[in-house]
Amino acid sequence: MRVVPLTPALEPAWTAFVEGGDGGGSGIRGAEAAQPFHRLLWRDVLRRGYGFEDRSLIALATDGERNGGGGADGDGARAVGVLPLHLVRRPIGRPILLSAPQAVTAGPLATDSATALALVAHARAEAERLDVAYLELRGGGAWTDGLEVERLGGAPTWHRLDHHALFGRALPADPDEVLGTIPRKQRAEVRKARKAGVTVVRDADAGRFHPLHARAVHRLGSPVAPRAYIEAILDLFGDEAEILTAEHRGRAVASVLSLKHRGWMMPYHAGAAPAAAALSAYPALYAAAMERAVAEGLTHFEFGRSAVGTGAHAFKRNFGFAPTPLPSHVALIRATAPPDMRANNPRLEPITRAWRMLPPWLADRLGPWVSRQVV
Q1: 24, 95, 208, 268: least buried by Cβ within 10 Å?
Q2: Diameter of the chain by CA atoms?
């Protein structure tokens, strides 16, 4: 087995490996199972939306290993592992090497832990060569058991960050059964919204979604992602991405952009107007998304990741979803401490407070540039 940078000639082997599902995995979509963020589509989304440099790595079987499973291209190169990797140049500080920007979870996808660790070792060498602040791999899996734990200069070689949790569960077989799976208090909120006239429709583009998303993240003190990034998701993922919008009296009050992947509906980015809370628009929106997923034959619903201790984390628990730890693993190269870009980080509170005070037009203008800091 050898690890090499991804080239256009090797892209068919990458795609065959990821789309073929040769990475295994178990549990909530399995931390080692292929994610949308392992697909080259996500690389293309990041390239179009942010211009991030692709530094992805692919593990190829040697001649003696080519009769096994994995993904092969037309020239016979067989992939046994992949690691999506991107160089992120930030407004403040040194660049970082990340797997993967804007991803819930990525990291290495491989036929075995040894191959995954080989990919990680090459990624770390690349991080040192590029002299970045740090290398971050989002997600976990059996491969993390093999990370070096010895201390170098009094500091651990790798830092595990348990800042986030992932929420997901199976869906019922009938759309009419969805409401019964939602806990009583949130079920009452859904009924309240529907009684008040909140309806949910599918939007063909980001025209209504993006302004709602921009206002929502502004209220949280976070920068909005470039609209080009949102539009790239819709364009490149096609029928595997959709926007649902909650309306009240013809006015959009909440909206969610979701991905669909291997039987899962994955609400990914969302936004709402201030009026959404009084209308219980979010509960109605997510209940409708679950019902729509069942109607389309999808079997599971992933509520995305949320930082522990935040309102989003509590909302998802109250909606009947149990949290699953979603670690990140960070190797410090030039940085002296692991990153913590959570909105509820007390050290960032002065920054988030100042951002909330910006007029919306200025936050919208600066947000896409500043958002590189928190991808």
Answers
A1: 24
A2: 66
Q: What six digits make up the tokens of 160?
A: 């595990």
User: In one letter, which amino acid is 189?
Assistant: E
Number of C-beta neighbours around residue 28 at 10 A: 18
172-298+356-369: CATH topology: Aminopeptidase (3.40.630)
Cβ–Cβ < 8 Å for 34, 41:
no
Alpha-carbon torsion (71, 77, 81, 86), positive or negative = negative
Q: CB within 8 A of 113, min separation 6: which ones? A: 142, 143, 145, 146
Question: Element (H or E) spanning 129, and its range?
Answer: helix 113-130
- Rounded Cα distance between 196 and 198, Å, is 6
Q: Which amino acid is at 356?
A: R
The domains of the chain are located at 2-165+327-338, 172-298+356-369
Taking the CA atoms of 326, 332, 338 and 343 in sequence, report the sign of the dihedral they define: negative
Q: Output the pLDDT for position 157.
A: 80
Helix (H) or strand (E) run with residue 121 in it: helix 113-130
pLDDT value for 65: 59
CATH of domain 2-165+327-338: 3.40.630.30
Report, as ranges of residue numbers, the positions in the chain whose pLDDT lies below 50. Answer: 21-32, 74, 149-152
Q: Do the domains 2-165+327-338 and 172-298+356-369 sit in the same CATH topology, yes or no?
A: yes
| CA-CA-CA-CA torsion sign (128, 134, 136, 142) | positive
Scanning the structure block, which residue is given the tokens 């036929």? 111
Nearest CA-CA partner of 189 in 201, 200, 198: 198
Q: Model pTM greater than 0.70?
A: yes
